[in-house]
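the two lines:
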Amino acid sequence: MIHQKSFTIALAGNPNSGKTTTFNNITGTRQKVGNWPGVTVEKKEGSVNKFGYDLTIIDLPGTYSLTPFSIEEIIARNFVLEECPDVVIDIIDSSNLERSLYLATQLREIDCKVIFALNMADLAKSRGVKINAKKLSELLNVPVVFTIGNKNEGINNLLKEAIKLAESSSEIPQERKVRYNRDIENSISKLQNLIEQQIAEKLPYNTRWTTIKLLEDDKIVKKRILEKAGAKAEKIFQEALSQRLYLRDRFDDEPEIIMTDERYGFIAGIIKEVHTTSTKERIDISRNIDLVLTNRFIGFPIFFIFIWAMFQATFSFGAYPMDWIDTGVSFLSSTLAGLLPESLFKDLLLNGIIAGVGSVIIFLPNIMILFFFIAIFEDTGYMARAAFLMDKIMHLIGLHGKSFIPMLMGFGCNVPAIIAARTLESDKDRILTILITPFMSCSAKLPIYIVLAGTFFGVRAGTVIFSIYLVGIVLSILTGRLFRSTLLKGADAPFVMELPPYRAPMIKSLLIHMWDRSKMFLKKMGGIILIGSVVVWALSAFPRNIEYSFDYNGEIEKIKASYETEIKSGNVDNKILEKKKDADILEISRAQRAEQIEKSYMGRMGKTISPLFSPLGIDWRGGVALLTGFVAKEIVVSTMAVLHAAEEESDALKNALLSSTMTPLSALSMMIFVLLYLPCLATVAAIKRETGSFKWMFFSITYNTSIAWFAAFFVYQGGKLLGA
Amino acid sequence: MLLSEMKEGQTARIDTVGGNSVLRRRILEMGILKGTEIYIEKYAPLKDPLELIIKGCHISIRVEEAANITVDNVK
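prediction for all of em together
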């Protein structure tokens, strides 16, 4: 076998330049989606074997520039600087040459091997834009290839050129780079000389580039210089500062702004030579669609119809596969129950692992459908319009228009909602959105409200439940405003956002999108859920040797024996007797289960912390139910049923609750607590994943639970004062 | 005249781009430069943000950010 050469190729480009489409076309399904280290920006990597070479393709985040402001830009720049890909392919939107060239010139300055892909040239041509590729290639000394990403044209040619460039060892001639005006060039050469004097060994990056970045006061480059030069860095920084001051004085503006202008000046020169437009009056379909979709009067109604349709599909179509999975899980569980002998392991497997993991897997259909819709919104370009419509409202909370979708999804399930916050570019916006999403009352909490409100508020239950939801929304707004002015201070990310032309989505990329994100959900949630479920199971299953206050087994034997004699006597119909026997036994074993939970570690914990709950009017049973609700909110109702030794879906639980110490007021207090307290395990895991830190996870848990406690406290104690 | 004061359907030429350094640079990098022709496509239903067409590109920008940009030759 011949030894194969391998190259790393990075794809760079503006958002909406067709970069992802090109990436999908090159790699097909052989791609890995993960996160860039330490941040939650998706990193896509794929590998192909082409022309006898192993090619690793990296899809860099879409950016307009390499100025390190946003996470995406930092990632893209660092990758090019630190990982030194063999070739960078810059995907250029042909109908937007000028802006695309801004990124291109920055890539050139870094001193990496660049190749331009003039993408969607067919579209540009139909708009009357002609680009002289040969001239462009000469002027910048860069290979230029025409591609049509969505038709998979020119891709092979592009890869061939990329390989050729990677194999070549040519240095990039200086004169093909941006030249600044005389004053700036003087400052550059002064500072560059000083750097070369001070630092003997080679700098990690191109010296001219480093110098320019120092003049632009680039924090990241400064840090690198400090690491490299140590004490000598001070002198360099001082010179940079004095040059900056000089330039600011000279031009009456920040040096970085002047340099941005100069780059555009350089680009304008190129454009003049390679770009011709015949101003054809064209019919802009995209603009016509927008006349309807962002219309002053019907824009919002249409938006809400889309959102409603998404929800409808997610939670009603999703219900069918959910049922299948549920049936599958119970089938597995009951089959294993029949096969395995009674043991601790069996209990762990069935009630811990299968029950726990099953409760998460069940969300998979929801998540897949939801992500399919989000992929449609993103790929067609509608997501940007949604942000355009909602921005005013969201801005009041200190958020970006795009935050609306994750927050709304929170009413369904917080887990996909938090993952959907990925669509937000700014880190602060993303964290803030993630922190307030749990206040959106998810669908798993609804059964709890139905039981409590239904039991204690009768006909007014609907109004009460609606108010609970409202409380959640109000608190999320207050929280948003509070955090924006304290913890996550700082200006909002500027809302300068492109509204890309509408495009018909490609089914292939929709599916890839949907599956990647769902896979992530499965993989990452799985581990944490598994551990969490086992811990909760252990807490409620141990200790094993409980001393029961009552001889349940003896009683069961007694019942069996007494029925046995009656059946033998043959006076009454055996079937009726059998049924009665089973019912009696069930009642006893339910009482036994209630006492077992009461005396388990979980029950003891509930009793220990009951002083915390009593000011809220919640008894220890409610406390234990709330504790188990950490695994999944669905469990709260079933735990309450177990503790009251009543069947779940019957009037028995209702009667048991009515005869307990609970009052309408304490039920209200408990509902408020359920609304606000710590999110379920899957959500907590999602928060950890998406914020990338345990800090925010613990913060969210603590904040939510304390808000819940205080809110419930005010409701209960306030209500008592008012004599409710 | 400020960009934020323009009405739907008007065109103008960018004169200066102000505001803090990060915002300015972001705006410049999106291609909103001195001397560029802009067209006000529309305001969002709630009057904020607004949508511009600049060299065939549709860009939305908040009114408060548009207030940092001055324009001339308004038509």
